[in-house]
Amino acid sequence: MRALYATDASEYQELPLAVALPRTEADVRELVRFAARHKVGLIPRTAGTSLAGQVVGSGIVVDLGRHLNQVIAFDRTARRVRVQPGVVRNELNLFLQPHGLFFTPETSTANRAMIGGMVGNNSCGANSIVHGTTREHLVSARGFLSDGSEATFGPLTPAEFTAKCAGPDSLETRIYNPHPTQPQQNPVSFQSPR
Ligand SMILES: Cc1cc2nc3c(=O)[nH]c(=O)nc-3n(C[C@H](O)[C@H](O)[C@H](O)COP(=O)(O)OP(=O)(O)OC[C@H]3O[C@@H](n4cnc5c(N)ncnc54)[C@H](O)[C@@H]3O)c2cc1C
Predict the structure, then answer these.
(1) Structural domain count, the chain
(2) What pLDDT is attached to residue 180?
(3) Domain harbouring 24, CATH code
């Protein structure tokens, strides 16, 4: 198993310390806590088609595609779908097709690439100039921080951002506000060059 997970689609090769195949969110949380306790790195991985060694390393490779591959919820009216990281891009589109919808980013590896990895790489494809890249279709992402706590990231209004900065002392609050003694300004909004 370690040899199998020592490569991805890149030129790099490195034997990981171990390979984990979590079945549930609780397994993922436990892995994060284990890694923090033992000070080892985790390497989240879905299809492993990355070209720059993203999923190769000396830590514990966590294959999130093997079991965590379900469509969890679908709202036709809002045109939103909630998925686990291991859903393959083309399989998601087979699911959406009868509803007249599709998830647009079309990497050449779309019959293998999974949504977790597409988010990690901000994957795109030949028609991304028209349809946008993965991040332009991502509504929010829920996961675990390095201490095992759960967090959801998505767009925030200035008021929501201020509330996050003033939250109870936690890793999530420190991400928004690394220097709690200094009051945070509202986030600067950037104008897209397009
Ligand atoms: C022949 C070929 C053609 C390609 N063409 C394109 C292309 O046209 N467009 C394009 O954008 N890319 C392309 N790629 C690169 C790659 O296929 C895509 O970026 C693909 O979307 C990656 O998906 P994956 O499931 O393989 O991700 P992986 O390689 O498994 O992971 C990608 C990144 O996401 C992280 N990650 C995965 N799951 C999670 C998770 N649950 N939580 C946190 N982090 C996570 C990983 O740690 C890694 O950093 C190509 C690759 C090959 C080999």
Answers:
(1) 2
(2) 73
(3) 3.30.43.10
Pocket probe for ligand 1: among 123, 131, 135, 146, the residue whose CB has the most ligand atoms within 8 Å is 123
Same-domain pairing of 136 and 77: yes
Strand, helix or coil for residue 62:
strand
Alpha carbon 179 to its chain's center: 26
Residue 119, domain member (yes or no): yes
Q: Using only C-alpha atoms, what is the Rg of the chain?
A: 18
For 119, the domain range is: 71-142
Give me ligand 1 centre to Cα 83, in Å: 16
For residue range 56-113, what is the model confidence (pLDDT) as tens digits? 999 999 999 999 999 999 999 999 999 999 999 999 999 999 999 999 999 999 999 9
